Amino acid sequence: MLSRTADNLFWLSRYVERAEFLARILEVTQRLAALPVAYSGSSNEWDSAIATAGCADAFFQAHAEANSESVTDFLAFSPDNPGSIRNCFEIARTNARAVRTALTADMWDTINGAWLELQRHGARSNSREHLPHFLRWVQETSLRFDGSAYRTMLRRDHYWFSRLGVHLERADNTARIIDVKYHLLVSDRLGGPLDYFQWAAILRSVSALTAYQWVYRDSLKPWLIADLLILKQQLPRSLASCYENLVRYLDHISRAYGRQGQAQRRARAMLIRLENSRMEEIFRSGLHEFILEFIAENNRVGAAVTEQYLV
What we know:
Layout: H1 3-33, H2 37-40, H3 45-53, H4 56-62, H5 68-77, H6 85-98, H7 105-121, H8 131-152, H9 157-185, H10 193-204, H11 209-216, H12 222-231, H13 239-257, H14 262-276, H15 279-285, H16 287-310
Helix pairs in contact: 1-3, 1-5, 1-6, 1-8, 1-9, 1-10, 3-9, 6-7, 7-8, 9-10, 9-12, 9-13, 9-16, 13-14, 14-16
């Protein structure tokens, strides 16, 4: 397969995953911001949303204050923000059109239909009445695209590069949520309303609240939330699960092309580290430092994939 085709498939999946992540962040932030002050605390959740999306510098160059209107417009609709939901779908469709023959009909119909539907949403989607429906639509579109890829693509290099994009982006997104909220996860405060709603928000942002209850059958505890999001391979959005999948698909690619490289070695080393880690040790050495190192190494894995296959 041409490296250009692999690159288009890789970034197509990354941008669809990123759009879903932004929709989840906005949805959770809206829920927290709507809570009474006694429950939501004094912190500005819209600042937190910008930090989680990783675009604080660009945002504050264009806006003086992070509030509902400015953050929602910037993360969802702004053509000036390269990482907005609108631009994610536009770039995803551009990549999809470039490799139209490498996609199944279901995948193309989903991403092309999403772009056309996005034009119809327009400015009214930013209104209080329509925004929740828009954010839910974004998440459903991502799920349809992911499901169509899983159900209809041949298990060959086209599929494997697509899945690499999904899991690299998903690992980065989960790590950024933990990084922004780490002060809650290392907090000694227990049982307060602010703690409960903030911790529940972390889980909702990765659709893991029900999974938490199934796995631990306990009230929300910060060290268990961190354990679920970092080390539990059963949770599809955990760091360990993402790297289990990255190693699997990189191994498929290496066998198909008859060689391995830095991408396989780095991904395998990270998976081994996650499998051998314990939350007690991570908290003792510093959760924030662990996550910062993970994000940096995840970026290096992505760069290794690019250098090895996509250029």
